[in-house]
Design a protein that fits this description.
heterotrimer, A mainly alpha (about 290), B alpha/beta (about 425), C mainly alpha (about 300), A: about 290 residues, mainly alpha, MetI-like fold, 2 domains, about 70% helix, flat, C: about 300 residues, 15 helices
């Protein structure tokens, strides 16, 4: 016993020594790689923002990366000519209800798929779940449209909200993967204490899966915030338009105005960055919960 | 165990009944809207936005004032226009009166969903076909059926930068100019450093921007009814015309290739910025050209063996699902009437003779050229039938080979003619 | 009686019942409908005409269709592995750095925040042979850049490079998974004398393999269905070099008015995707490690 401890201690010492000397170099290398990646990511963005401040004839002047003078009209114009607050309200309603619906339904369904692997039919149904994502939407579009229209849901928010309460394959899959990584003994103790499935999901799974659930919230916020195709098909009257849809007015069929287009892309991006930045802090908080220290 | 399986199957089937009945219950949802006491409600669908959309709304208001019984909505769906119309139609929500392009009027017409307007035209004493310029009106006629009334149109016109010609001490181009005269003149301008490029095409990879120059050399893409391409697309005249264009791109570098044009903002931007002396384009953006501060003139396309041009055209059609066709006809008629066209014609060519006169377009030297050129317009290959329309992407691949890959012109055109005949025309 | 209700099977079906109901009501109907449509000729304007298996028969003679499958397969097989690898590297770096973590995470997620068309327009400019930044940078190191979107041999590569920009989603999923890797496991391995690479290979990768599995499957499904990039940037050109299957399907449905044919294409693609997904699934027992399986003994 004593000799094993000594060996362990020697390893620990050499590890700590190595750690302190190489840590600095390691961090340096890591930041260098990330800096290169950051460049790859940011350059198109800088271009986007600079274009959004340009006049139409400036957009294409070769060699002019920066606008001659800053033109904020592109940012103000959409607010002036569109019922912007109405669009914003519609977008927020759809986004919020989708997130609520998805978190509830996908947590339950994901837990079912993760924990009852041994039940006959689990694997098959899971493949069916994934398979529903494999048929290109272009060909189910029209049957789906007819379905919702005949339910009387055309030009309402229902087609954009109700399906979320019945779980989406992508998030079910995502949560299933995370739930499967949570050790079982935590739940088994609770089962022995007589807790039901609901209690276990709420008390054990949800707290442990917070980073995953935060991920679902972010993805869904962005997906629905930027979604143009769904509202395009199911919403008809202007008062029901979402922001993403309303802003498409700037792209006419034959002439695309690049300045306003980029301004809108930038505008739409801002709340997304804010949400992500906030939620990203939340991931770090998640470490303490999941690392079982 | 068995009992439960049966129950599961039963419940699943019951749930499936919802979508199945909903899918099959077509027309379960007939809208019975009688808004504010008006008898009829009609929608005008357009792909235009901004100014074009505003104009059409004004025209709708004018119609409602004159017809208090009818409400009219003008809608401009975001996204891809034709896809939207098709989706809505297939889903049981077809449009009423809607804007339609010259290819689609033939496609939709071929499917028999557009109302033949001839009976209305004959029965209506107020409607006179002679109010319209012949060529523009004829474009809505498909196989003897008048499937659309003309909304607006433009031939391919030659725009030239007057400043460049003045500074180089050259005369402005006119109808006497031969292709070679234009090439020499713009070469002079470019050589003197007055412009980056001499001659810019609307789109080197699109049939309709190329076809008039083939005609000008007595060539053609096909025979008259579009059923045969060998002997036409690969005829010496066609090849010669293509070689002339290609030599501008590859030998003289007077014409920007596709990526170079895009790098400078596309053909129109090139002209705005004075980067090209000549642009072949329609008369849709003259306002913007003036705003950009270009001093420009228009002229007919230069001839090789003869003069030629091609039309770009849009009309209004009536969908066959419209119940109150008489009201829809009066709305259609209103949109092409002199009063309405006077509003629309402020920024473009109008097919309505009287509106053009009232707006003074026939006396405006820049606009009158366009009206003159419309008479030279011939029917492009892509409008000769449904099979020909479907063959256009293949035809355009020949231009990709020639202008992106510098493929051998004679060989490419010969292979393309054969391939299209085999795939699209010989059935 | 009570026992019958308390079986795992009952619990499982109850738990997944929201999805089953949603599937039957909203998804199964349209999917079945598209099977039926694939057996018809349908212009979308007139009523469909039943033609049996004609569409499927014609597909195998359609050289554009087979070309589109080759293009799609190339796109998927090149882009997915590189995307996963890049995302993995960046996520691990973001997980280990000390400063600016939050800001840098946000930066790498940025591209996923901007929607569709604007992104593609930006990249069209980036790839422009005359003014684009990419050829400018290549020129600085003395490499003459290709003509990218205008060259049939490089256009698809350009679209693949474009796809690397948007790996924010993958990075976030890897990051969330990395939070679940207990530090003590890494520390223990280090103390036992393992170097960083060994720790990554023997500890980190197995621990986050469920997330890798997820990203591989999802990226594969979405790459096989890539559409917007090709539709906006190249419309399938030049010479069909970027005409991916879903773009071809779209052109058939909405430009050539052949919805029946388009539906047949969709179903062929469906089975191709299903085949590859099942392949990955079958292989997963070899390389995906679930903590719950080992410890709980499934």
């Amino acid at each position: 016993m004593a000799s094993r401890n000594e060996v362990g201690l020697r390893h620990l010492r050499s590890y700590l020594r190595r750690k302190s000397t190489s840590e600095f170099i390691k961090q340096l290398v890591m930041y260098t790689i990330l800096a290169m990646g950051t460049g790859f990511i940011l350059i198109p963005f800088l271009w986007m923002i600079s274009t959004s401040l340009k006049l139409p004839h400036e957009v294409w002047r070769p060699g002019t990366f920066l606008p001659e003078t800053l033109h904020f009209e592109n940012y103000i114009y959409p607010f002036v000519i569109l019922p912007f607050t109405r669009f914003l309200r519609n977008s927020l309603i759809i986004v919020a209800l989708n997130i609520i619906g998805l978190i509830v339904s996908c947590t339950i369904v994901g837990y079912g798929f993760a924990r009852y692997q041994h039940v006959k039919g689990n694997r098959t149904l899971f493949v069916v779940l994934l398979a529903t994502m494999m048929l290109p939407g272009q060909v189910t579009l029209i049957p789906q449209f007819i379905l919702f229209r005949n339910l009387g849901w055309f030009d309402t928010f229902y087609p954009l909200i109700v399906p979320a309460f019945f779980a989406t394959p992508f998030y079910v899959f995502l949560l299933r993967q995370f739930f499967m990584g949570i050790p079982r003994e935590l739940e088994e103790a609770a089962y022995i204490d007589g807790a039901g499935v609901t209690v276990i999901i709420l008390r054990i799974i949800v707290p442990l899966a917070k980073p995953a659930i935060a991920t679902v919230i972010i993805f869904e916020f962005l997906a629905k915030w930027n979604d143009f195709f769904g509202p395009l098909i199911y919403l008809d009257s202007m008062e029901n338009y979402t922001l993403a849809l309303g802003l498409q007015f700037f792209e006419s069929q034959y002439s695309t105005e690049y300045g306003p287009m980029m301004a809108i892309a930038t505008l739409m991006m801002v709340p997304c960055i804010a949400i992500f930045f906030y939620a990203s802090k939340y991931f770090i908080q998640g470490i303490n919960l999941t690392s079982f220290k | 165990m068995k009992g439960r399986n049966v129950r599961i199957v039963a419940v699943s089937l019951a749930l499936m009944l919802v979508p199945v009945t909903a899918l099959l219950a077509g027309g379960a949802q007939e809208e019975a809207v009688e808004e504010d006491g008006r008898k009829s409600h009609l929608t005008v669908t357009t792909w235009e936005t901004t100014r074009g959309l505003d104009d059409q709304r004004l025209i709708a208001e004018m119609f409602q004032e004159r017809n208090p019984d009818v409400t009219v909505d003008v809608v401009s769906p975001p996204g891809n226009y034709v896809e939207r119309i098709l989706t809505q139609t297939a889903g049981g929500n077809p449009p009423d009166v809607f804007q339609i392009g010259d290819v689609d009027v033939r496609r939709f017409g071929g499917e028999g969903r557009l109302v033949d307007l001839n009976s209305f035209i004959e029965a209506d004493p107020d409607f006179d076909v002679d109010d319209f310029f012949g060529g523009a009106f004829e474009y809505g006629n498909v196989g003897g059926q008048q499937l659309a009334l003309p909304k607006d149109y433009s031939p391919l016109v030659m725009f030239y930068n007057r400043g460049h010609f003045d500074e180089a001490g050259l005369d402005y181009p006119d109808e006497t100019w031969h292709w070679d005269d234009l090439v020499e003149a713009t070469q002079t301008i470019v050589d003197q450093g007055l412009s980056r490029y001499g001659i810019t095409f609307g789109n080197l990879l699109e049939d309709r921007h190329i076809e008039p120059f083939i005609w000008a050399n007595n060539g053609a893409f096909s025979n008259d009814d579009g059923t045969q391409m060998t002997g036409y697309l690969d005829s010496p005249d066609t090849i010669e015309a293509m070689e002339r264009i290609a030599s501008l791109v590859f030998d003289r570098e007077l014409t920007p290739d596709v990526s170079a044009a895009e790098a400078l903002g596309g053909p129109r931007q090139l002209f705005y910025d004075g980067n090209t002396s000549v642009l072949f384009w329609g008369v849709w953006h003259m306002e913007a050209m003036d705003e950009a501060g270009i001093d420009f003139g228009t002229a007919v396309l230069p001839k090789m063996e003869r003069h030629a041009s091609v039309l770009f055209w849009a009309g209004y059609s009536m969908f066959d699902a419209v119940e109150d066709r008489d009201t829809a006809w009066s709305l259609l008629k209103h949109y092409v009437s002199t009063d309405a066209q006077e509003i629309m014609g402020e920024t473009r060519m109008t097919p309505n003779r009287h509106a053009a006169e009232r707006l003074g377009q026939l006396d405006d030297p820049r606009m009158s050229t366009a009206y003159e050129l419309a008479d030279y317009a011939e029917v492009p290959f892509g409008l000769k039938g449904a099979a020909q329309a479907n063959a256009v992407p293949d035809l355009n691949e020949a231009f990709e080979r020639i202008f992106l890959q510098q493929a051998d012109i004679a060989e490419t055109l010969r292979d393309t003619a054969r391939a299209i005949e085999a795939e699209h025309l010989n059935q | 009686m009570r026992k019958a209700w308390n079986t795992d099977a009952t619990k499982f079906y109850l738990l997944i019942s929201p999805w089953i109901i949603g599937f039957l009501v909203f998804i199964a109907g349209p999917m079945l409908a598209s099977v039926v449509i694939s057996l018809t000729e349908w212009s979308l304007l007139r009523d469909p005409v039943f033609v049996g298996l004609d569409n499927y028969r014609n597909l195998f003679r359609d050289s554009r269709f087979t070309q589109s499958l080759r293009v799609t397969a190339r796109y998927t097989l090149i882009s997915v592995p590189i995307k996963i690898l890049l995302a993995l590297i960046i996520a691990m770096l973001l997980d280990r750095i000390k400063y600016f973590r939050n800001a840098l995470r946000t930066v790498f997620y940025l591209p996923s925040v901007v929607s569709g068309v604007a992104v593609v327009v930006l990249w069209i400019w980036m790839f422009n042979p005359e003014i684009g930044l990419i050829n400018y940078l290549l020129g600085l190191v003395g490499i003459p850049g290709p003509r990218w979107l205008y060259d049939p041999n490089w256009a698809l590569e350009a679209l693949i490079i474009m796809s690397f920009w948007g790996i924010g989603r993958e990075i976030v999923i890897f990051l969330a998974a990395l939070q679940g890797v207990p530090d003590r496991l890494r520390e223990a391995a280090m103390i036992d004398g393992a170097n960083s690479l060994q720790v990554i290979r023997n500890v980190t990768i197995p621990m986050i393999s469920p997330a890798i599995f997820f990203n591989v499957v999802m990226d594969m499904i979405s790459s096989f269905q890539v559409f917007t990039d090709a539709y906006v940037a190249t419309e399938g050109g030049p010479l069909g070099a970027t005409r991916v299957t879903v773009l071809y399907l779209y052109q058939q449905a909405f430009q050539q008015l052949r919805m029946g044919y388009a539906s047949a294409i969709a179903w062929i693609l469906f089975f191709i995707i299903l085949f590859f997904t099942l392949l990955v699934f079958k292989s997963s027992s070899l390389w995906v490690y679930y903590e719950s399986e080992v410890k709980g003994g499934a």
